[in-house]
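Render this sequence as a predicted structure.
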Amino acid sequence: METRNRERTTETIAVAMSGGVDSSAVAALLRAQGYDLVGLTLQLWNQRRLAGHEGMPEAVQGRCCSIDDVYDARRVAERLGIPYYLVNQQERFEEDVVKPFVSEYLAGRTPIPCTLCNNHLKFDQLLLTARQIGATSIATGHYARNHYDAERGRWILSRPADRSKDQTYFLFGLTQEQLAHTLFPLGEMQKPAVRGIAAEAGLEVAGKPDSQEICFIPGGDYQAFLRAYLEEQERELPDSAGELVTTSGEVVGRHSGIHNFTVGQRKGLGLTSANPLYVLQIHPESHQVTVGGEADLMSREVRVDRLNWISIASLTQPVRVKAKVRHRHEPQWATLSPGDEDGTALAVFNEPQRAITPGQAAIFYDGDEVVGGGWIY
């Protein structure tokens, strides 16, 4: 299998090694193809840092970016006989990912830290480090495809062969420069075959489960993390308590803070009703949270800003796309148009979509190609 529609070269490739089966299989695959490799792992978060704070575990093991993963990545590199480096990026991770995550939740939005990490840290820092050690490209275990389109003069990011593992939603912020120097060797493969490569190479991580959690939030308890992080920073949790209201403005209850809610949420509202109620909108200025029935969650419009275009240089006129508004959302037909303000866009779906959530990303596709994406506001 070719790694990028080109002939074999003598270049050195830096492999982003997370300690999981996917990145380990990438290293094994490229090593077997005869490439000179260097393994790189980014140390992003001290998993013991908030241990002991209320709601936080004393120790965290067996999760993404944990010390166990670093150990596994180093062991894979030793098994394959390639140099290995651990790069400490904890300070930048906190500035570019953790602090924005906290700010977004406190403002009543629902952020995606993995996308922030890819956009602002991982690919940027991995390429910089790779060049410093003499590598010309990086390879990752993401399920995606990229190639250069000479006619358009652009690098194109596309969905992978294994749709169930599609990670293009988290990669929409990659620049042309980053795509030009990144390889996605798993883009044409199915997950079972990837595990087979790891097993054939004798790697102990071949049967390792995939991580499903955000690396710095054990158990997915966002509220516990917010409380613990703010306590560590000697900051008070802002008082954003307010009213629960209906779409007509009727007050039906009170809540203890807007950070406890996300659009589409049903549980934890503290309300009793003959029919299920869901969070429809969060109003950070007034601290009101609007609730309503499931039908009220449906919307045909999504507005985005902080756009990044991949298959096109810019959006100058309406185009037909398929749009995806959360990771597990199946892309749906929409018309994408330039927004009323510079740097924004508006997508109007053919059919109403459920729980379009500020703080999440919207990604636009033309077939398998990623046209671009932005942040929902």
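Summary. Residues 12-141+185-220 form a domain with the Rossmann fold fold (CATH 3.40.50.620). Residues 113-132 form the longest helix (20 residues).
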